[in-house]
Design brief:
Blueprint (H helix, E strand, L loop, with lengths): L2 H4 L2 E5 L9 E6 L8 H10 L1 H10 L7 E5 L7 E6 L7 H20 L4 E4 L11 H18 L5 E6 L2 H14 L1
Parallel strand pairs: 1-6, 2-4, 2-5, 5-6
Antiparallel strand pairs: 3-4
The structure holds ligand AR6.
Length: 174
């Protein structure tokens, strides 16, 4: 039923900073002033101008997203979104879904056709990968169904274990 949409989704292992896509998504914090994990890696690879632009934006609430240029990255843009700190409450799921929904909406508004996501909230913020994966994939499918202008969406996982979780879930949808 979702075949055309599933065909636009790619799951792979690697470093998001190396990807040649229109936009990569950053798992940021509400200050947008950088941090560890994928946020630190993206800022290091993009260079100091990224931090300057983030400073001008002045922060981002949890679940929302903001767009900047990509500077030294191969990606033209970075979409910064802030995942929830996992506490096992029902609103965690909604906030995480909002991250994917709002990032993809910004992508559509900015004519971005290819986009890559890390596993938002699954590092320092403690969201269990199995639950987060379902939110990520289900929300992406929902938005891509409404917006065919997204031609390719990459879920890029840092570890082999996380990759397996995504591949297993995708396999259940085919
Ligand atoms: N490419 C792809 N995935 C990566 C990379 C990379 N280069 N580096 C890490 N990951 P985290 P969060 C994976 O902690 O949980 C920051 O300090 C990692 O294995 O980066 O949303 C921010 O400033 C994990 O699966 O983000 C915030 O304060 C996933 O990316 C806070 O961490 C997300 O892990 C956000 O925490």
């Amino acid at each position: 039923m979702h075949k055309e949409i599933l065909d636009k989704i790619e799951v792979r292992q690697g470093d998001i900073t190396q990807l040649d896509v229109d936009a990569i998504v950053n798992a940021a914090n509400t200050s947008l002033l950088g941090g560890g994990g994928v946020d630190g890696a993206i800022h290091r690879a993009a260079g100091p101008e990224l931090l300057e632009e983030c400073r001008r934006i002045g922060g981002c609430p949890t679940g929302e997203a903001r767009i900047t240029r990509g500077y030294k990255l191969r990606a033209r843009h970075v979409i910064h979104t802030v995942g929830p700190v996992y506490r096992g409450r029902p609103q965690d799921r909604e906030l995480l879904a909002n991250c994917y929904r709002n990032s993809l909406t910004l992508a559509v508004q900015n004519r971005i056709a290819t986009i890559a996501f890390p596993a938002i909230s699954c590092g320092v913020y403690g969201y269990p990968i199995e639950a987060a994966c379902q939110v990520a994939v289900d929300t992406a499918i929902e938005v891509m169904r409404a917006h065919p202008s997204i031609q390719k969406l990459v879920f890029i996982l840092f570890s082999a274990a996380d990759l397996k979780v995504y591949l297993n879930y995708m396999a259940t949808l085919r």
